Structures are given as C-alpha cells and as structure tokens.
Amino acid sequence: MGLQIPAINEQDSAGNVEVAETVFGQSFNETLVHQLVTRYLAGARAGTKAQKTRSDVSGGGSKPWRQKGTGRARSGTMRSPIWRTGGVAFAARPRTYDQKLNKKMFRVGIRSILSELLRQGRLVVSNDILPATSKTKELSEKLKKIEAKRILIVVDSIDENLALASRNIPYVEVVESLNLSPVLLVSADKVIATPVALKQIEERLA
Prior knowledge:
By secondary structure, the chain is α/β, with parallel strands linked by helices. It has seven helices and six strands. The chain has helices spanning 21-24, 30-43, 103-119, 136-143, 160-166, 182-187, 195-205, and strands spanning 2-5, 17-20, 123-125, 151-155, 172-176, 190-193. Strands 3-6-4-5 form a four-stranded parallel sheet. A two-stranded antiparallel sheet has the order 1-2. The protein is elongated, with a radius of gyration of 27 Å. The protein starts with a strand and ends with a helix.
C-alpha cells in the first residue's frame, strides 16, 4: 500500500503522486538524522588551518642569555610559546573532518527525513514548477502562493532555465534528486519535488 504526496495546490488531488510506504512512511530517527547532518556539515569544512609550532618558527639557534646571574628568568630559546614571537603551543594542523557513515545508515536517515517532511505537510509535488523561460519573475509567480521562508526544489536534472531563474531568489535552493543533501532537507520549510524526481528518490532509497 502506498502513500499520497499532495500536489502543490492542495485542492488539486489529481496531481497527487503515490509513493512507497517503505520509503516515505518510516518513523523519525532523531539520533540517526543528527548524525547524518553532522557528518555532512563536518565534511564541508576545509580543514586547511595551519599554525607554526616552536620547530617551525625561524631563529632561536642560541640561548638568549646565560642560565644564571642576569636576574631574569631562565630561557633556552626565543622560539618558546611563551615568547611574543615564538611558536604556538598546540598549533593547528591541516586535517580532514570527514566522518564515516555507511550506505545503509545514509538511506535510512534520508528516508526518515522525507517521511517526517511528508507527515508535517512540508513535502509536496508539482508538475509545472519548472519555468518555461529563464526569467526570475516567472518562477517567483509560481512560488508566490507558498508561504515559506526557505524552499527546496528537487528535480531529476537542472536545466538552464531553472538555474538562471532561481539563482536570484535568495530563499530558493535547487538540487537534483541524485545529489539530495540531508542539510538542505532539514533546513527547508517547504520541499517541492517533480514526479520524476520522486520516483528517482524512491528507487534509490528502496
């Protein structure tokens, strides 16, 4: 038995799309979704920060002054972290923030997010969301009736018209179904998908 994803106009039941309950009818796994989102955010970090340790700082070849008799604290090198021009005690090094997450966990996490979006009425389908021209005004007119601060449009492939029409609308994100990101899904107030994109998602996550 399948589930019905409502059309963008709730009165137009003819535009509803039936999808598998095994994909869009899962319970919400908050722990797994949090892990999935954290993994994506961590993977987006550059990890290129670098600082110099005492071994990287130039100078310091000789002892600044003799050990005793000067009245000052003993010092062995000017590259010490306690010196103004010295190295950093616990210096940052280039690193990767990638976290491991197997494919099964990814599929279950995405199914959980999509199911919750459907239950909350934030996932709808539309046959005519794609603009016929590259004019931003045309796409804005299509989205005018949707009361949402952030809208995610999911399509099977992004054509030139959609890319050009959506790029100047700050609250709209466009993504292909094969590149669906959990971060985009959870941050969107409304997710609008084309029927073809929904079928691709269903086949991928089944």
